[in-house]
Specification:
Layout (H helix, E strand, L loop, with lengths): L9 H11 L8 H8 L3 H7 L3 H23 L9 H18 L4 H11 L2 H28 L8 H17 L9 H18 L3
Length: 199
Amino acid sequence: MHSKVWPSKPRFWSKPKSCSGKGYTAVSITDIVNAVGITKPTLYYYFEDKETLFALVLVKMLEQGEAFLVKNHAQLNAQAGPADLEQALLSLASGYYELSPTSLVAIIRNATQHLNEQSSQKVFAAYDTHIVKPIEALFKAAQDQDLISKTDTRLLAYFFVSLLDSLTSGVPMQTTDTAPYEAQARQYISLLLNGLLKR
């Protein structure tokens, strides 16, 4: 990337993100510059190629996802009980749906198919840091409070993210009726907790 820093104004990040849901091959540089409202030379002034921009947009999305999930959904107080854990997981599911109208796992898979190894590693590291670790911390807190059985909280976090991703993939884009998604999330979270909660 050039020595110049890409502007941090919201329009510069919200528009490329709207293109990222289409996938790497479906989005052209023309789509991106039209969405953002800049010229190709301006884009290339900041980014050497589409791959660099795609990786950076994915990392930025994941960073914003962490801020959203942690601030609004991944809380468990010191006196939490099983119902509080269930509520925290349902809140995370709701936040995940709000955050990711497209499949995060599909976006990450897309990155590995089209990005070089270094860019792919950056995206995977951001996914792990900004999405998986906050959820892992929630399960770790539940384990520390003796709510759930001892288990690999990292693997559990990856499993939970995959579950949420699977649930969001079944919901049509642009839908305002979240009731079917919420009902499924409640059902699967209940099944998950049945296997985890200490009796």
